[in-house]
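ok so i was messing around last nite and threw this chain in just to see what happens. nothing serious, just curious
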Amino acid sequence: MKMERMFLLLLLVSSSLCAGNYSHLGTGTSLAVCQPDTCALLSEVAAMREKLAALTQTQSTLEQNLSAMMQKMATVEANLQSYKSQAEELWKVNQAQDKQLNALTDVSSTSVSKMAFTAALGSSVGPFEQDTPLKYQRILSNIGSGYNPATGIFTAMTRGLYYFSYTMYNNNSGQPNSVASLMMNSQKVVSTWDTLGDDSQDSATNAAVVQLEAGDSVFVKLYANRVLYDDGYYYNTFSGFLLFTL
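result:
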């Protein structure tokens, strides 16, 4: 405002001079000497006034742009606060889920680290036309539920070192005719054999410590055309347990 007032004052003075009012210049001052400079000054003042108007307009535009930017920044800040709140909520949910997962992992680790079973036949089996896994139906213990009596197969729940043993009682009459093997997947581990001799009441036991991966299977296989005798005294058993995980 002060600048505009100064320009208006200069404009009034210059207009007065260009109109021929030179009394204030003193005696002897000619129109030819003063008028051109005054008019030039007036033109410069007018040009400066136009520049001032342009600057004022530019300042107004900048102020409007600045106001718009401030509003956008306020919106962005509000969004950031919202995102921050959402992130904090997600972090809390994630922490809770981690605790639940750790608890489940601890329970799972405890359950798979305790595996042991013993099962018995309880009745005679064989002969079969092909090699057959023995299904020990009487469950004496089955911690960890690794042994399945419906299939006769033990399935490892975790990677580790396991101990297995089985006892085979022969056919109990006539010519001995009993052959069985401890199997790991399709691999023969150890075996028992009784097919010769005159005695018919023989029993044999074998055992092994094997390394299993999770999902590996172990069972006792009775070979084709072979026989085992059993009754309520449970001569034929199959046992195993996890020594330690790896």
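not much to say yet. The first helix runs from residue 2 to 18.
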